[in-house]
## 1
Amino acid sequence: MRLSQSGYVMSISLYAASIPVFQQMLNALSDVLTKAEAYATEKKIQPPALLQARLFPDMLPFTRQVQIAVDFAKGASARLAGVEIPQYDDTETTFAELQALLAKTLAFIGSITPEQVRSTARKVSKSSCVPAPKRKRV
């Protein structure tokens, strides 16, 4: 930490603020899948019933939400490292397939080094998670 005019300033690398966070999130999601599968087995619930469940009617099924979480983590990580984003088919329909997807994504994210992110961070990057507003046609 260093002292600035307005007080203390703490610096943190872009790598430290992103890659480990994505890894923790995907590992936690893997734990959720493990618990959901055990619950389905214990309660004799067909796995597709949980995997296609929605907490609210306008939500996407759980399987798709896992795929979106993976897409965000791998996409953001690849952009930060300046490497090509891996393309996955998003055809997972079982707990095992979702766990394999998470493992594959964690392996990819784990291959990204702090130096890759540091070198890319020097370049200006524009990226948004929010779609641009649509313009009205006149």
## 2
Amino acid sequence: MQKAKLSTIELFFVLIAVSTLFVVTVHQMSTAGVLPGNDPAVHLGKAKQIVMDERVSYSEVAWYPPLFHTIIAMLQIFAGTLDLMAAAFILKMLIATFNVLILLATYLLSRKLFGTGVAVVSAVFTILSVPLFEMIFWGGYANFMGLAYIAFVFYIMNKDLGVIVKTFLLFLGAFTLVLSHQLAAFVFVLMFVPAFFTISIGSKRKLIAFLAVVVGGGLAILAWYARILIEYADIMIEHVFFRMEENVYLISSVSLDALIENLGATLFLALAGIPLMCIILKKKKSLKDSILIVFWFAVPFLLAESFLFGIHLPYNRFIYFFATPIAILSGVTVFSLTKLPAFLESKVFSKITKKPKALNAARMLILALIFSLFVLQAYVFVQRVETYPQYYERASIASYNSGLWVKQHSVPDGTVITTRSPGSWFYIFSDHRTIQETDPIVARTAVAETLLYSFYEMENSLALTREFDPVSPSAGQAIYVSRFNIWKKAMSIPNSQASFIYVNPFGLWMKIPLSETEENIYWKQNSTDE
């Protein structure tokens, strides 16, 4: 069978699409200070540590597997500099490249399964994918790398290659994917295992290819996760699935309204694309290939909605994993609309006398519908993405200059307390140990909260007076309760309703309303002479 080659027009489209996505990605990453989000500061800090230590340290409970940080460190060594702006430029180029890899893998996989038309539409929807750009803005680069390799592995699985080449590429892709990010590895395993047992039945060639993925991913798991899994197996499942109750506050981000806000019309186009995909692949006698796309969409979607089953997971993180199959399935639906005139001509308009006029009218309506779908998705994309630079700005130029000033004028062993912005970035800017204020849903930093609140009280002294004034209606006893691991005020009892009870020297119980007592605040300063 002769392999389909890219035509000149198709090649031109691919080059335009790749160039556009690369430029847009780099531009968007340059609109919020040094880099958008707080996580890039962590990535750069870990990469710098690898360069300084000249080794990769194994952490018993690692926040990230080391591969992504090692890649950044290698690129910095190759560039010959640890300069922050150079590192930010390297990250922009790297993430834009991963985004292009997602686009190319999506395009080639769609082309292999459904043809050029679906591939073109899927590529456009990939460029207009809001979740992928949101992930870039908050700085989930390691996970983004995992998304790119999931798309790459799934494409190679369906590509007609020699056994040796295909086995090597799948082994390398699976190994890299599993070491990119623990969440990407978790989702990939849940998607791949059922697809492996279903698709490889009756096909020795596919079984060999799938085993390459199993071996590659398995070795990566042994290399990094084995010790963690063995030592914490008794508590890991309970902790990951049932103990992180603070994730309840993320449920609103995966509601139907939130999904429509982020995905636009592609959510409904993808749902319509599932049966259409099965019909198309059944005609091509390759219905088994639909299983991979279905699991690719269904598994992360069910994980995002797992609160329905009483499971506590980071629900909103799984939206990014079904962004790519949504683009593919939306492409199937939209391209199927272009086939509707031919279907109507053969089934409906064959009995109509004025067939040309009716057929032309149907074509115009369908063309207008397709155009409106693209315009609607572009509108959703622009409307959402234009809010990200301000929302995710952490490393502003002002904070960068402040960090440089601290680096030049402060003692090297000092500690800096920062607000959420610039957060971890101030450590990168100043080379000083940084304690940052955090979102209470993520964690509590008592030291940062105490110091920042103290500065606020000094700058706004009336707040301190109002808080401890016994005649103020807001003064009194506040009772806090922990709900889903977050402390919230449950009730406030005014001092007039609360009493101080004690036993006097004569053995009598005494009860004095707090409103009748005197409240004093004492500040104790440690001696500096010791």
